[in-house]
Amino acid sequence: MGRAVTVATCALNQWALDFEGNLERIFRSIAIAKSKGARYRLGPELEICGYGCSDHYYESDTLLHSFQVLEKLLESPATQDIICDVGMPVLHRNVRYNCRVIFLNKKILLIRPKISLANAGNYRELRWFTPWSKARQVEEYFLPRIIQEVTGQETVPFGDAVLATKDTCLGAEICEELWAPNSPHIEMGLDGVEIFTNSSGSHHVLRKAHARVDLVNSATAKNGGIYILANQKGCDGDRLYYDGCAMISMNGETVAQGSQFSLDDVEVLVATLDLEDIRSFRAEISSRNLAASKVNPYPRVKVNFALSCPDDVAVPTCMPIQWRHHSPEEEISLGPACWLWDYLRRSKQAGFLLPLSGGIDSSATACIVYSMCHQVYLAVKNGNADVLADARRIVNDEAYIPEDPREFCKRVFTTCYMASENSSQDTRNRAKQLAEQIGSYHINLNIDAAVKAVVGIFCVVTGRTPRFSVYGGSSRESLALQNVQARIRMVLAYLFAQLTLWARGMPGGLLVLGSANVDESLRGYLTKYDCSSADINPIGGISKTDLKNFIQYCIENFQLTALRSIMSAPPTAELEPLVDGQVAQTDEADMGMTYAELSIYGKLRKIAKAGPYSMFCKLIHMWKEICTPREVASKVKHFFRMYSVNRHKMTTLTPSYHAENYSPDDNRFDLRPFLYNTSWSWQFRCIDKQV
């Protein structure tokens, strides 16, 4: 009697609508799984078309091409003698479902539609799909002709069922169903299902990995069983980075852990486990067994196939391991770096250009690019042929091999310090020193001539000359003069991104990187269409506090000593005139609040769903040791005035790496008006009454 089952899960770097590339990666994962003795292979959610197709799911082409890929998988000898579980959209009776298609030896065993759809935050699955609401029911699905010709089947089971092999029983969950309060694995486990599978499209958020791991382990801690999780990895075309973490758990303990951040397009995790360990674990849980005796059974699809071998007594099985979590600083170093690499290679550009001011935000962005170069160097050193091929294409050299991270950085990363008469020598030196240490191609330029030319046009037309407030001008004049400098830097950034390589006799163009952090975006402390306007922004979802900790991490782990002076300097925009050669303008003074306060406001506004009144009520307790109720009221009012006045800026926010759940990204995550009544008269009156 077979006891030891060998199963495989994977993390694939799929790309929305890249059917050819997606098929190739699926084939590679199946080949690796078979080579390691696996009899069952699980892939990520919607892996055939890529998870992030969005409104392309409405198109019949997406359904057609998904079935064409399925046809290739079914007819290939590579998929023989292994149960393959793949994800794709399926139209059943004119309703679109997010499905798992499970097949073996050219026969489709079951099409299992998703029951609980993800529809919060970045997810909009209810926009494109309908949840399957017929619990424990199956219907006949009439296969398209191209599939019938391969399988010889006219119809297959479609619905909420489980697979009964010769030696065990398997039940599928899809992503969100693990997070739901009434997860299917609970009832399936009571009905005798021993192996639970979960195909996910779960994205990275700082400090989130432990929650996913805990959910997987807890799924079998009370009920016993094997839980297998597959996940998408990489950037598949938008702001999210899917962070892998494929894993296999048994009886509440992790037995196999995949990487969270990696440049490997295909990662396969295989484990051999003893089914008798599940049965003995369940045997003594009397409460579970009582509940199991009364459970409503699932339809079972019988499969004439075993996941184990008859004579497997000598087969070694996997033992529990301790999950290793990354620190938040490591997550910032690795996640956005992998996202940037995917964006660079898939956009077919020749590198990045970053306006490097010598402050914390742009320096942190530069460090993330350096970390990307470091990851590329290590991947090539470890024999990753895909990464080497991409690197050679990017630098336009078929014989190229990265010698070290700094040398690769020189080829793909251009930094540019754009000085004005309001810039200090200190920030110029800091930018230059950091560029030297990471190896970027560095440009120093002065924007004063362009600023004077633009302001000169205004003076000629109006006959008026605006002045900074330190020279007697109004706040309106001063702000306008600051904004001209900021916007000219954006224009120059794009000019140099397009033509710097041309001027150096090299092919290609550069992607412009932005460097506004999540707190500044929330407050609106940025000029619309300045250097915050770029192609992509790797730090747009990261707080100032986390960026400071990341800078310290880079000092210690990359030996970037130039960052020490950047860390100790007060953040400044350097848009107002210097006083005695020194910077007089600071970010926190301009904003009227600290970055630490901004992080708290952001979390209360978005995560705690607090309006002005609720935020005041929470903060009078949180800050009771440092602020009077009147001071708290003043701070809350100031934040909401500034937030609402500047909300329009979020409509043009540069696409940013999503790393925080209090991101103000207006595109799909944080949907709000951008024309507010900024007096908040009713809300503020309620606060005043409590004060």
How would you describe the overall organization of this protein?
In the C-terminal section; belongs to the NAD synthetase family. The protein is globular, with a radius of gyration of 28 Å. By secondary structure, the chain is α/β, with parallel strands linked by helices. The strands form 3 sheets. Strands 1, 2, 3, 4, 5, 8, 9, 10, 11, 12, 13, 14, 15 and 16 form a 14-stranded mixed sheet that branches. A 4-stranded parallel sheet has the order 19-18-17-20, with helices on both faces. It is built from 24 helices and 20 strands. It folds into 3 domains: 4-302, Nitrilase/N-carbamoyl-D-aminoacid amidohydrolase, CATH 3.60.110; 328-447 and 493-584, 3-Layer(aba) Sandwich (Rossmann fold), CATH 3.40.50.620; 592-690. The relative contact order is 0.09. Helix content is 41%, strand content 17%.
